[in-house]
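Case study: Histidine--tRNA ligase.
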Amino acid sequence: MSDKPKTSNKLLARLPRGLVDRAPGDIAATDRMLAAIRETYELYGFEAVETPLIEYTDALGKFLPDQDRPNEGVFSFLDDDEQWLSLRYDLTAPLARYVAENFDTLAKPYRSYRCGWVFRNEKPGPGRFRQFMQFDADTVGTASVAADAEIAMMMADTLEKVGIGRGDYVVKINNRKVLDGVLTAIGLAGEENAGKRLGVLRAIDKLDKFGPEGVRLLLGEGRRDESGDFTKGAGLETAAIERVIAFTAAKGADAAATIANLAAVVGDTAQGNEGVAELEQIGALVAAAGYDDGRVVIDPAVVRGLEYYTGPVFEAELTFDVPNEKGEVVRFGSVGGGGRYDGLVSRFRGEPVPATGFSIGVSRLFAALKAIKSPLVTDAAGAGPVVVLVMDRDEIGHYQRMVAALRQAGIRAELYLGTSGMKAQMKYADRRASPCVVIQGSNERAAGEVTIKDLALGAELAGLGKDRDDYLQKQAEAQFSVKEAELVDAVKRVLARRTA
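Here is what the predicted structure looks like once written out:
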């Protein structure tokens, strides 16, 4: 007989990095949150559209590197026609393809919203996932900044709808034309300076994290952090650095002051002055609708990373403090953003098609609602099904008729399908969050009765002293018998207690 150890053929159950499983409670809570977002979007006249998870890779445009195998940033594969396909990176590029493909049949401006999973082929880490959900709203076919102002105001209403209190959030607006005007003024116009411009954008984006001095370093030679790691900077001269810093610090006491400060920073650059004029119009529209009370503000520090933004850009930021992974108290930060992308649909059409939109990070917003214990996500997911216990396996057909009667009355119900005894069946019903169980042994069946046990009330009784005046009354309500013909009405009474 061989002493060689046996090897197991058992497959190791493991979840790929950067992905998460979702439990029933989180799914139910997320659905409630999404319903609230959807209701707000529809209140503004947006309608739903759904695009597939897979698109032709070239439709995703600037997200991809210029190489034979587009596997950086996206998950891609070749189909049997030797065409590259990719899992969608966001919901905006597929919308651009959809609008271009159906351009002649869509009412324009075209107002739509979409919710769905997107995928990033990136190294996962804390808060960075390979699959996550976004909820977008876009207006395509109008260059009016009224569309941008409307998107910003809708974001404010959406945050309040899901339970973020006024004063705990701010929707910030900037304009890429203003920033481009600043970049032109410091000599960074043209394709040959694309790398430096990206370095400037990345530096500005770190303003909340490193402050003005840290951004100064990143705009110059670079910055060394506490661990000794060095981040190379954009390499700007001192005068250029100060002009960019002045741009980020241009926010004034009100919109008018901010506009005046920005006008001074952009100087005589045509693009910069066009952006300032657009921000001034947006500020006026926001004020006319009454959203200039701190809900929607013009903030030059907002820089969106994606290069297809061509005008106004938005960011929804939550201003309350939460502990981070290290236990440090920090501001929660952004839960979504967007902006005007007038060139994206045009790639398919060969003609200008203006568009603007906003994307909510669903998981990020869900985490925020959990942090503030919003009832929308912290309330119980709802009662599970009524469980009909099986006390006599020879009578399983009879128990099934009871389940069918409950279902026909619109009551969630299930027959216990395991092989365990009554104690284990009761434990099963508890794990299923069942509001009550239906019990019928041989004695009850002979009497034409069923026993109903209210599990929630039973748990409450366990915490009461037996000398309490209401103990006996609740004990009678927690477990009682009725004629089998009265089963449905009796279960309805138990369920009504939970919603009273």
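For the exam, be able to explain this: The chain is about 40% helix and 20% strand.
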